[in-house]
Write a structure and sequence with these properties.
With about 350 residues, this protein is an alpha/beta fold. The strands form 5 sheets. Strands 1, 2, 3, 4, 5, 6 and 19 form a 7-stranded mixed β-sheet that branches. The chain has a 5-stranded parallel β-sheet with strand order 8-15-9-10-11, covered by helices on one side. It has a 3-stranded antiparallel β-sheet with strand order 12-13-14, with no helix packed on it. Helix 3 runs parallel beside helix 4 and helix 3 packs parallel to helix 9. The radius of gyration is 22 Å and the shape is elongated. The two termini are about 35 Å apart.
Length: about 350
């Protein structure tokens, strides 16, 4: 089922027709449900987490959002390709998101969740400050950490000159000289895509020589320069990227450097809870496997946003959160849990 079909399914009026019984938590009596502190706890207060909280709050559900305050895009100057909010600062977007949750039964705990376990019924989470909360459902919107190459100067420019997504950052540096680094198998495919924005484009292998003769020929046909030397450092001036210096002493002037860095989960909560995990070499590892609604192999646990497998963009993260929240409310209705 693709995303459009999934969205249609979520909107289906027949509650029992949308998901199998295994994707919702086990039914409780109303007395058991009343012992729960919350209908759902959302771990992570980024776009996907706040989106989930908004949908659940508007469904008359009691929600707790636990947030450690370290969003992945905190170094980025702006959020882009988000309808009506193009160019907004990440911190401002989250501020608006929190403000719009005030009318609803949504509360916040500012701190990191360090432990989560299945209870009977529901789930118990513990924060680093020692507080414990109970909920019928968990939404993990905990994000990822980018496993950046250990190159001098690269981390300092992450989000401001070194990027991962041209759809998020390409327009601001369009028609300028770019370089990009990715596995050899993606050199042609990604290079062709990046040419939509770049003025001049150079592929950097990072010191490997895994390009096939066919790939080299195709890159040359596309007008993409090839550099297979090892990179020594990323050059900058006044916090702006200026170029790439190679270990052989040569350098390349660029005004943007795009890389495909693998990501790792920022939190081990999905693993703690026993969710089935999946990995793809060079792309992601130990990531919870979910269905199209964000449901994991553990009934009642959902993983959304960058923490799940999907496009790492704010727009898709928001959709992920809303889809999971809708499914949770449907499961609560199905299980006879009254709204608050």
């Amino acid at each position: 089922m693709n995303r459009r079909d999934a969205t249609t399914a979520v909107a289906a009026t027949a509650i029992g027709a949308v998901w199998s019984t295994e994707t919702s938590a086990a039914a409780d009596t109303n007395e058991e449900a009343s012992k729960m502190d919350y209908d759902a706890i959302v771990v992570g207060g980024g776009p996907s987490g706040l989106s989930a909280a908004l949908v659940l709050g508007r469904s008359c559900r009691k929600v707790l959002v636990c947030d450690a305050g370290q969003p992945r895009n905190r170094t980025s100057p702006a959020v882009h390709s988000f309808f009506s909010r193009d160019g907004i600062r990440p911190v401002e977007l989250l501020k608006i998101g929190r403000e719009q949750l005030k009318p609803y039964d949504v509360s916040f705990h500012d701190g990191r969740v360090t432990n989560a376990q299945r209870s009977n019924p529901g789930f118990r989470v513990q924060t680093e400050s020692g507080e414990t909360f109970l909920a019928r459902n968990l939404i993990l919107a905990t994000g990822v950490t980018d496993d950046l190459p250990e190159l001098e100067g690269l981390a300092d420019l992450w989000g401001t000159g070194v990027y991962h997504c041209p759809y998020c950052h390409g327009w601001e540096v369009r028609k300028k000289p770019w370089a990009y680094m990715a596995d050899a198998g993606l050199a042609v495919e990604w290079g062709l895509e990046l040419q939509c924005w770049a003025g001049e484009l150079t592929y950097c292998s990072g010191g490997t020589s895994e390009l096939t003769d066919a790939d080299r020929e195709k890159l040359r046909e596309l007008g993409i320069e090839i550099r297979e030397q090892s990179i020594k450092r990323i050059l900058s001036e006044s916090n702006d990227i200026r170029g790439i210096e190679f270990t052989d002493g040569e350098s390349l002037d660029v005004e943007a450097f795009f890389i495909r860095a693998p990501v790792v989960p920022r939190s081990s909560l999905a693993k703690q809870l026993g969710c089935k995990l999946v990995s793809m070499t060079g792309v992601y590892s130990d990531t919870a496997e979910t269905d199209q609604f964000g449901a994991t192999s553990v009934p009642g646990v959902y993983v959304v946003g960058d923490a799940s497998v999907g496009a790492p963009q704010v727009t898709t993260a928001v959709t992920d959160g809303a889809m999971a929240a809708t499914m949770i409310n449907k499961s609560l209705v199905k299980d006879g849990v009254p709204s608050r």
